[in-house]
């Protein structure tokens, strides 16, 4: 697979306002992703026993009682979604939508290594797991070194590039939300085999199940690829809501009792979408944000219906749209200097394989940037966002 050469950029690069050469980059990236496989990538599960892929342990280690000095009230964090919460599942599948190479991981741990996280460091679910007092990092379910303790304290099934719309995962050759739910059933069997029915029941009753998806439906499937061109903004938002509702209904039916749904962000304001749809001034794209707002409104109604259908379950819609938009338009209020460009390369288009150690320079001070690449926030931005989510939503969910 050829990598599009975007040049070795610097932060003072004069050519930033000349967008013509880069407008085809996301199209090429997504077309290449769609052609990695002639069919949808489907997760088929373990080929052997239900404990396959888990490092053997005679007696699974009990979950740690304290992380960062906080008492543990939640036994596990289990996550579904896209690249915002994918800690490396895409490393294990055939797709170019991945981040297991430099400069990803630029600030991750003492060895600054890429892990498959689409970020310079930790991602939201790492911070959430820590704030919940579970563990400092949430591993990928498909990680080759997964242990029984990892299973008992939670994993992420998320796959970068996926969405609620089934077509989104197909175009990117990544793990669909439906297949993530199938993986969850396999996970339950592994937990039961490792620690018994009581441990599984505890996770289902008191664990936190977080879901984050939808951005790739809007940015990639609808706008960049034009794969749902017959849909209006409103009708496509309704399609996303319908698929998201079906996923959440399936998750609740599978036993999850505490579900946290992360809302759509103002996707039209991320650097790549500014470049593609924001005109010469690279303003926020109103069409992207209109769909995001419609989805969020629809999900508010859907959550109410799901609560009524599944009495005893707690389902919360964590609305990050307004808070993240404020970070984007008032970056200085959160300790940032740049919110319209990413730190990687030119900051306008580089993401996934386009943000690499060969063609992409890294900005001088990552701490000044809201975005790491042209699509994903920095570790610093995620930390601030998770503090907001925890204080305003998660505290109530686990109370």
From TrEMBL:
Ranges annotated as biased composition (Low complexity): 41-59
Keywords for this protein: Signal
Organism: Hordeum vulgare subsp. vulgare (Domesticated barley)
Classification via InterPro entries: GDSL, GDSL_lipolytic_enzyme, SGNH_hydro_sf, SGNH_plant_lipase-like
PANTHER family in the record: GDSL ESTERASE/LIPASE EXL3, OS02G0101400 PROTEIN
Family in the record: Belongs to the 'GDSL' lipolytic enzyme family.
Pfam families for the chain: Lipase_GDSL
Protein's name according to its UniProt entry: GDSL esterase/lipase EXL3
Annotated signal peptide: 1-38
UniProt keyword Signal, yes or no: yes
Gene Ontology MF, one: hydrolase activity, acting on ester bonds
């Amino acid at each position: 697979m050829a990598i599009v050469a975007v040049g070795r950029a610097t932060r003072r690069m004069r050519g930033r306002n000349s967008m013509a050469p880069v407008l085809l980059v996301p199209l090429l990236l997504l077309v290449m992703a769609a052609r990695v496989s002639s069919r949808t990538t489907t997760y088929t599960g373990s080929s052997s026993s239900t404990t396959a892929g888990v490092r053997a342990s005679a007696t699974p280690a009990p979950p740690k009682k304290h992380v960062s000095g906080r008492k543990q009230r939640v036994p596990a964090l289990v996550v579904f979604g896209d690249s915002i919460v994918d800690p490396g599942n895409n490393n294990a599948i055939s797709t170019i939508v991945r981040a297991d190479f430099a400069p990803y991981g630029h600030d991750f741990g003492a060895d600054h290594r890429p892990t498959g996280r689409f970020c310079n460091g930790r991602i939201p679910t790492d911070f959430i797991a820590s704030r919940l007092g579970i563990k400092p990092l949430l591993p990928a379910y498909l990680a080759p070194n997964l242990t029984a303790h990892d299973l008992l304290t939670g994993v992420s099934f998320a796959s970068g590039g996926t969405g609620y719309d089934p077509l989104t995962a197909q175009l990117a050759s990544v793990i669909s939300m439906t297949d993530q739910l199938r993986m969850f059933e396999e996970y339950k069997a592994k937990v039961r085999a490792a620690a018994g029915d009581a441990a599984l029941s505890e996770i289902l009753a008191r664990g936190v199940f977080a879901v984050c998806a939808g951005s790739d439906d809007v940015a990639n499937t609808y706008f960049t690829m034009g794969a749902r061109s017959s849909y209006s903004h409103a009708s496509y938002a309704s399609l996303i809501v319908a698929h998201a509702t079906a996923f959440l209904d399936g998750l609740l039916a599978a036993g999850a009792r505490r579900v946290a749904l992360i809302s759509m962000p103002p996707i039209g304001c991320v650097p790549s979408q500014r470049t593609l749809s924001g005109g010469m001034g690279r303003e926020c794209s109103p069409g992207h944000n209109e769909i995001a707002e419609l989805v969020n409104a629809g999900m508010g109604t859907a959550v109410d219906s799901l609560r009524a259908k599944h009495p005893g379950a707690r389902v919360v819609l964590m609305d990050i749209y307004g808070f993240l938009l404020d970070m984007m338009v008032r970056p200085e209020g959160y300790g940032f200097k740049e919110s319209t460009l990413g730190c990687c390369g030119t900051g306008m288009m580089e993401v996934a394989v386009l943000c690499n150690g060969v063609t992409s320079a890294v900005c001088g001070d990552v701490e000044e940037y809201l975005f790491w690449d042209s699509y994903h926030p920095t570790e610093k931005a995620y930390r601030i966002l998770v503090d907001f989510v925890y204080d305003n939503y998660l505290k109530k969910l686990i109370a």
